[in-house]
Write a structure and sequence with these properties.
Length: 290
């Protein structure tokens, strides 16, 4: 947890194997600085089976956590907000390339992992700036008293069909190709993340998840949980429990970042909050590489 004169950040996350898979191929990392208004959540949903997916997702989240943990330097702090935003964007772009290459290299060293890859979704908060990036169909949402907004749009076959008017949102949820993604880390030499910047001007909850959660919840159902369940950070546990009650067909990962504006809580000046992690890492047999 971090506190400053005007901003309070708290973060939590959890990953779960679900009720069907034999292994958890998801990986998650999260962190909130103890003294600065800085925090992040990174979730990766691996694919490939035979431990390949778990390796790919672990490479992705570990690569990003190493970079993000070193982001706030004296040079960064001396920059303007616009420059800082550009530095965050650049760090994300560069790290996507680095993680992508690391997964490809691991495939070359381990031919049994030839089909592995991973999705990625991450959120970085610095002061009132939010940067969200994703590759694949792991998602980010933002809830405030104004309601819920799905920040990311899936890189998937069904999303392309929705955009083309060939499929409705309701049809997409039950389509037999709903797990087919069109972009992933570790599949091609070049991969482009979608990166978005937003300004946080009111207290908000950021929810990141793998499709093991979004499989079971539409936006209104997620909004209900985020609006009513307190403490807010414990939404991670409630959402995973409810996804398992609905069948838990896939691994489930959830990260929550709580942004509180105009906090009157005294700043924290000692101690630290270690990065969180969850690495129960299964086989996405129905998710082919593209």
């Amino acid at each position: 947890m971090s506190n400053t004169a005007g901003v309070r950040l708290a973060v939590n996350g959890k990953t779960d194997i679900g009720r069907v898979r034999e292994e958890n191929e998801d990986a998650i990392r999260w962190h909130a600085d103890a003294t600065l208004p800085f925090g992040y959540v990174v979730i990766a949903d691996g694919m490939g089976g035979y431990s390949g997916g778990s390796l790919a997702s672990r490479i992705a989240v570990e690569t990003f956590s190493q970079v993000l943990d070193g982001l706030i330097t004296p040079i960064f702090l001396a920059c303007t907000p616009d420059q800082q935003n550009l530095m965050i964007h650049s760090a994300i772009n560069n790290t996507v390339g680095k993680a992508n290459q690391s997964i490809i290299d691991a495939k070359l060293e381990n031919p049994q992992f030839a089909h592995m890859g991973t999705t990625l979704v991450l959120a970085v908060v610095w002061q009132d700036q939010l940067v969200v990036a994703h590759v694949g169909d792991s998602r980010a949402y933002m809830w405030s008293t104004a309601g819920i907004v799905q920040i990311t749009k899936d890189h998937s076959v069904v999303q392309d069909m929705i955009d083309a008017g060939a499929l409705t949102e309701e049809q997409a949820r039950v389509s037999n190709v709903r797990n087919h993604i069109t972009r992933a880390l570790g599949v091609t030499e070049d991969v482009e993340p979608t990166i978005q910047s937003l300004t946080l001007n009111k207290s908000s909850l950021l929810l990141l998840c793998s499709d093991g959660l979004s499989e079971y919840f539409d936006n209104s159902e997620l909004e209900h949980v985020l609006a009513t369940h307190r403490p807010a950070l414990e939404c991670c546990y409630r959402l995973i429990d409810e996804a398992n009650q609905c069948g838990g067909k896939d691994n489930i990962s959830v990260g929550i970042l709580e942004f509180t504006a105009n906090s009157t809580v005294s700043p924290v000046v000692t101690g630290s909050v270690p990065s969180g992690s969850g690495e129960d890492t299964t086989v996405r047999r129905d998710r082919p590489s593209h």
